[in-house]
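User: Design a sequence. Structure:
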């Protein structure tokens, strides 16, 4: 009688690293009855998911059961690893009858086949009860959170599309009747045809982070980028953006003549003092400074011992007498002394 002892086994090899060259591996620490009773799996080292390699082939010894080896269709990199696992689908392929009785050898063989299947079932159940089940639970929770967020995003997208559709309808009509709000970066590419005039009765907000920007981007030199300021559809001022940094021009517009007006632009500071009122005007005691360190100041009293400046600077004295109305800094850069009346 043949001896078919069955040792305890998970019928699975430990993970082994590829060497980047070899394609055939084995024999392994458990036996199989048929090459259909085993699978080989691979994965990248450090990851958790195994993938069955359906292109690999197996070779088994002549005994039943016997050891086996696996051959891959190509060499795998050293960054990957493999394992083999028993995967027998149970069947009875031998006859148990022997004359009018039973064949003990055949019965022992079938019992060993059943034992292999039971060991593999036990192995798979243990893995499902542990890491796989926990991973499935985490995946289910993550999937739920993703679904909830997707629903929120879908509602937001629906609201945005509805608002855009309404705005486009108003754009086609030439008039916006509600606020047009851009949050983040709004970019229009390609051609966009607008009516001759767009009237915005309320507000247009272009927001990006902590700044607010309204950009007019010309596509070629020689074109005009202009911002108009109107009151009751009558133009009062315009800002022209030219082709170079020096071409920024703010102009006063005369709606009666339809022409721009020279020396008619006013700029005020926070206290209401006119910084520019037709002609260049500075507040009292103010200063004009050049980036080379030279200044021009206006004030009362002598600057000597009072006003700090560099050599070459000028001081105009409002309360001076003949010979003491203009001072030039002739010495002592950075000091209050060295002023000479002219």
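Assistant: Done.
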């Amino acid at each position: 009688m043949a001896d078919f002892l069955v040792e305890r086994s998970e019928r699975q090899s430990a993970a082994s690293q590829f060497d980047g060259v070899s394609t055939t591996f084995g024999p392994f620490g458990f036996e199989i009855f048929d090459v259909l009773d085993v699978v080989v799996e691979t994965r990248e080292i450090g990851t958790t998911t195994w993938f069955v390699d359906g292109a690999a082939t197996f070779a088994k010894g002549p005994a039943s059961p016997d050891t086996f080896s696996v051959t891959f269709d190509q060499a795998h990199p050293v960054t990957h690893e493999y394992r083999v696992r028993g995967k027998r689908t149970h069947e009875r392929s031998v006859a148990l009858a022997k004359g009018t009785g039973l064949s003990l050898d055949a019965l022992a063989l079938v019992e060993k086949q059943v034992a292999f299947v039971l060991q593999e079932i036990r192995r798979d159940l243990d893995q499902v009860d542990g890491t796989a089940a926990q991973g499935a639970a985490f995946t289910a929770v993550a999937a739920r959170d993703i679904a909830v967020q997707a629903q929120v995003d879908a509602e937001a997208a629906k609201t945005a599309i509805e608002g855009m559709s309404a705005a486009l309808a108003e754009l086609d009509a030439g008039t916006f009747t509600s606020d047009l709000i851009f949050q983040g970066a709004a970019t229009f590419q390609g051609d966009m045809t607008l009516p001759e005039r767009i009237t915005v009765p309320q507000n247009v907000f272009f927001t990006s982070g902590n700044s607010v920007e309204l950009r007019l981007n010309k596509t070629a030199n020689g074109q005009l980028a202009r911002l108009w300021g109107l009151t009751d559809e009558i133009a009062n001022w315009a800002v022209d953006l030219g082709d170079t940094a020096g071409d920024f021009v703010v102009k006063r517009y005369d709606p009666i003549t339809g022409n721009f007006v020279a020396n008619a632009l006013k700029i005020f500071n926070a206290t209401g003092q006119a910084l520019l009122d037709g002609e260049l005007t500075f507040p009292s005691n103010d200063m004009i400074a050049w980036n080379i360190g030279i200044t021009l100041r206006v004030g009362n009293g002598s600057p000597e011992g009072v006003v700090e400046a560099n050599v070459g600077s000028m001081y105009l004295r409002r309360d001076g007498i003949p010979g003491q109305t203009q001072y030039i800094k002739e010495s002592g850069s950075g000091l209050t002394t060295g002023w000479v009346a002219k």
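Residues 104-173 form the longest helix (70 residues). Residues 285 and 299 are 5 Å apart (CA to CA).
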